[in-house]
Write a structure and sequence with these properties.
Elements lengths: L3 H10 L14 H12 L10 E6 L2 H7 L9 H4 L2 E8 L7 H10 L4 H17 L7 H25 L3 E5 L4 H10 L8 E10 L14 H4 L5
Antiparallel strand pairs: 1-2, 2-4, 3-4
Helix pairs in contact: 2-7
Amino acid sequence: MITKQSIIEAYKWRHACKEFIAGQKISEEEIKFLLDTISLSPSSFGLQPYDVFVLSNQELLKELHPHMWGAQKQLFSASHVLMFAARKDVTVDDDYFHYVMRDIQQAPAEVVELYTGLVKEHQLREVKISESSRYLVEWAAKQAYIALGNLMTAAAMIAIDSCPVEGFISDEINQILLEHQVLDPEKYQIAVFCFLGYRLNEPVRPKTRRPIENLVKFIN
């Protein structure tokens, strides 16, 4: 049985692992479990407006390495490299929206009609996609971060280390991925990388966080 204390202990144990034990691989069973936590994560309207790429091609990783300043040690020592990419085709006018509604959620026509109106209004009013297409991608990336958080928590609970990384040069990374036919920058924007594996060393410093009373504001 999972206890509240075991969850807290997993959070305390987790840290941004800067270097993993090279060659120590996460089992296929555990990777499937972790990918399931991504798949089952919530997203706005259940649209999952992002894709996750598991990068294992060593030649590709070597080309990416000079442009991944935030992951110089993680890139080659991690067991698995995950890349979360926000989709750019996630308005109600795009095929992707109707694919999710029809084929994934199997929603009846009246529900699709309702959701079409709700999503369109939300994206125009709150996301403000009419002002800039960048806002749509940022909204999609936010959904990816929800899945990222769930992934890292689930990993910590089964003693697998992780490290999220935003430290990369987008233009160079995009060009390499395009040349390798991995990702088309016209259709995706990379949100974040996540490296998974087993820590080589324990953290040098203890985990520090703001006190709850300083972090959380109760408005009565």
